[in-house]
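Quick one, tokens below. Sequence please?
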């Protein structure tokens, strides 16, 4: 299933709730995932990953404003 995400920009969510964002999924096997960001190359154990997400559309932020 991870083969479909190879080469795409994804977010990896870990079991403790932390996340690695803005990186590209480069390789994956049964034990590790290779994830590259602009600053780091990470080798992440599959057992520490809760989810891998891919953003398909940029979220629009709600407008906050006050009127008189």
């Amino acid at each position: 299933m991870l083969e479909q995400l190879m080469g795409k920009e994804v977010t990896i969510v870990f079991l403790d709730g932390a996340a690695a964002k803005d990186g590209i999924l480069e390789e994956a096997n049964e034990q590790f995932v290779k994830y590259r960001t602009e600053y780091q190359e990470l080798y992440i154990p599959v057992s520490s990953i809760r989810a891998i997400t891919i953003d398909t559309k940029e979220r629009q932020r709600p407008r906050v404003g006050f009127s008189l």
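Strands lie at 9-14, 19-28, 32-36, 41-45, 49-53. Residues 2-53 form a domain with the SH3 type barrels. fold (CATH 2.30.30.100).
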